[in-house]
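Appendix B, record 7
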Amino acid sequence: MKKQRRDWYIKNKERQDARNRENYHMNKEKRLKQTAAYEKAHPEQRKRSARKYGLKRVGFTLELFEQRLQEQNYLCGICGIKLTIGKIEATSACADHNHTTNKPRGILCRHCNIGIGLLSENVETLASAIGYLERWK
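Structure tokens (predicted):
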């Protein structure tokens, strides 16, 4: 029975998606209230779901993220600062990934992750930045 339902859904995906969108908009206020009530009653589940979704977008799973943290002894892969989990601050643990292949790399602090991102993950640019800093010590 599950296979039949799945096959039907695959064949009728566009139709079903349109129906779901219409149903959502017809009951939007009710759905938003239900979601808000659930999130208020289950804050830890909400945080975990958001974390899991965010990690999935960059090629990580919760298990891989935790594994990399342990491999790195909860230290940033670049600057070596002790990483924190759950708070948005300079030492927050960030899942680093290759933006071209979306393959996960390691775990960085927020500042290092932003830094290599702003330099477009370009090795030559990073080397040039190091040379610049060394010239102006």
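Remarks on this record: The mean pLDDT is 92. The two ends are 70 Å apart (CA to CA).
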